């Protein structure tokens, strides 16, 4: 088994929610994921309705659990995601203590909840600045970031106020999710689920990156990248992943992702 395959296998085992299948998902596949329906995720008939009812039940059950239990579970899943994605990691405890990427996202989660209350916006900015000083990662408290988010190495990451990031996204150091305009309003990128952005890449403007997209190191992305595409270069050009090629496998096959 190749190193890539073993990494993929380990990721699948540890993160069953991680969506690693590229392109060509059947309706059967779609109806069995936890993801909401989208344009290429046709979900029709009674089966889909049951799926949504099931999701709604899960959401209600989740909201009934005490906040500290939910917080603990989120911290643990962040730790597991980090351990899986950092080959140098040896344990949850090690990552909890030494990973600036994790410290940054945990501080952001607190700052983001403060940001929702008008009166706490200044303290939220202050907390975000303290986290930036400690970790080298600047995340505006207004940015919306999904679950199991991980930044490897941390230093030099900048995420703007109106950026939106889905679940199971990983960034390397030096990534910018920045704006290209001084206008207020939506001006930062929107990233779907299961995306990896290589070191030093700049994603600029209100562009959209579809689920499973992979962005090469040092690329400059100024246009949308469809789901399950690999984008590299300045300005970035994208290519589709081969039919059912695993996005994680593609990272090993595409040297530019690691430059
Ligand atoms: C370079 C820049 C000033 C161009 O802005 P613009 O004039 O509005 O550019 P356009 O959208 O008209 O794009 C013109 C062309 O340049 C390309 N382009 C745009 N920005 C580019 C960049 N940074 N690098 C390489 N090519 C770029 C576009 O792909 C487009 O190519 P095409 O004509 O082949 O389609 C802007 O894209 C930019 O990079 N601004 C810096 C933003 C930044 O640093 N933000 C950080 C915030 S934290």
From TrEMBL:
Q: Does the keyword Repeat apply?
A: yes
Q: In which pathway does it act?
A: Amino-acid biosynthesis; L-cysteine biosynthesis; L-cysteine from L-serine: step 1/2
What is the reaction catalyzed? L-serine + acetyl-CoA = O-acetyl-L-serine + CoA
User: Per its UniProt record, what Gene3D superfamilies does this chain match?
Assistant: Hexapeptide repeat proteins (2.160.10.10), serine acetyltransferase, domain 1 (1.10.3130.10)
Q: What class of enzyme is it?
A: transferase
Family annotation (InterPro entries): Hexapep, Hexapep_transf_CS, LbH_SAT, Ser_AcTrfase_N_sf, Ser_O-AcTrfase, Serine_acetyltransferase, Trimer_LpxA-like_sf
Specify the domain of life of the species encoding this protein.
Answer: Bacteria
Presence of the UniProt keyword Acyltransferase in the record: yes
Matching PROSITE patterns, A to Z? HEXAPEP_TRANSFERASES
Which key words tag this protein in UniProt? Answer: Acyltransferase, Amino-acid biosynthesis, Cysteine biosynthesis, Repeat, Transferase
Q: Give EC number(s), comma-separated.
A: 2.3.1.30
> What PANTHER family does this protein's entry cite?
SERINE ACETYLTRANSFERASE (PTHR42811)
Checking NCBIfam families in the record gives:
cysE, EPS_EpsC
Family the entry assigns: Belongs to the transferase hexapeptide repeat family.
Entry protein name: Serine acetyltransferase
